């Protein structure tokens, strides 16, 4: 009935392959005179989603998560993951060969310092930022050893069937969706650069490249990125480094109006020429490879490693982008509601699987005719699989949807906006424990949604709002409460986020997720996620500071079956009823009569 076009459900590699591949790598390290090597889950741009040719960590270990690091020594190897993946790593990796370690408990640097015991530790300088390289160097030194840059990457020598590098066409992102011409954006970037007293910005983040030049591409999955680089000087000619095979005539002509075009292979030469003048070059601390910082310094320039000013400019959406996001969310909301109504009809028969759920949801989105891609592989977790926050269903793990809980986290990429939504759905009658845990998570979601806070507040200050009810019950979740979201760009966008590590002040126009959760290992998982637009709110009489709050962009019902009203305050019930009233009013006219009737029932008042 349904099919998936933007995602596959192929089984993960056999964990048993990790052992032989580990020995191949160790043999190559021995040939190079190395005592160890660090394998990050990264490419030269520090992308979250990387091309298949850059999936070195996955090839070596089988781990399919979006973040992780492996350290290989002569006799030991460890894989470091965060709280999202502590269960997943045990399923995908041969833990007899790769010791799994939660990065909260011990960092790779600390482990290296304790276990390297002298010798030469190798790293690929293209895959680590300057700060990451410095930490590795300090750890190696603490162990009596040294850090050694290695090119080419030793894994590439033993990965015999490594895929080719991507070469997808670059396309222009029209002004009707961007809302601002590339020339105007570049003027703003140059002004910010001058304020930072840098002579040139080296653009190493493809998201920044795409935004500032109003281009999109297809070099990585689910995020419309063109991989490339740019040099933006305070004065003089801009240089854009893109594979010319990606550029059709109209795209080349449009880009040539704002920058000179060169091949990526020319970047180091041009960067050296600039640095030889003694220029101060701003490099993004989060994405610039250590290799390029070294190029600047060796040529006589100053490598000014800091914040890329484009990140904040990109995070604050303009009026056109905000209007586009709202349109995308209405369209996406209609697809979600059609999906939920379908699920309510089909699930009782007991024939659905996680794969069928993911395929159906993608199909409902595609019915709009405007879906360009999904924004990440759909997480459709039934029962205990829902307890894996970043679970990816495969043909090997595919569970039948049975009575209990189904967690579905998904999103769409449309030219006018990027969406991300999680709904936790009761299949059959939920238990009292499920209802209690769901309602505690809902209380945290509402606390964020209704928060009013002074301008200058950071996500770290708001994060406890989402956890208060869970903390009071002795519970918590091991991921951030929210992340930034791009405009037809990454579903996980910096620099702002709602988490313990979110130290960027929130500003009107930013879009962030609101997604507290709770996960009972081996049983079920719960997460409720909406995207929220930061907006100004009126300062009450007598108030002394400008205030901000959130406006929900996501429009889809929250499962009333899982709500325990006795645990909600009257104000929380009023919020839920008002939110459901808005969903019914805005999405009801966009769906067929049968679905509209289902929606009316799903959004009726709690009491």
TrEMBL record:
Which is an annotated Pfam family here?
Creatinase_N
One example GO MF annotation: proline dipeptidase activity
Enzyme Commission number(s) from the entry: 3.4.13.9
Keywords, A to Z, come to:
Aminopeptidase, Dipeptidase, Hydrolase, Metal-binding, Protease
Q: Which residues form the Creatinase N-terminal domain?
A: 21-151
* Gene3D superfamilies in the cross-refs: Creatinase/methionine aminopeptidase superfamily, Creatinase/prolidase N-terminal domain
Note the superkingdom of the native organism: Bacteria
Q: Top EC class per UniProt?
A: hydrolase
Which residue range or ranges hold the Peptidase M24 C-terminal domain?
A: 547-606
Where does the Peptidase M24 domain start and stop, copy by copy?
326-536
Q: Which family does it belong to?
A: Belongs to the peptidase M24B family.
Which InterPro entries has this protein been placed in? Creatin/AminoP/Spt16_N, Creatinase/aminopeptidase-like, Creatinase_N, Pept_M24, Pept_M24B, Peptidase_M24_C, X-Pro_aminopeptidase_P
Phosphoprotein as a keyword?
Answer: no
Please give an example of a GO cellular component term from this record.
cytoplasm
Task: Spell out the protein name for this chain.
Answer: Xaa-Pro aminopeptidase
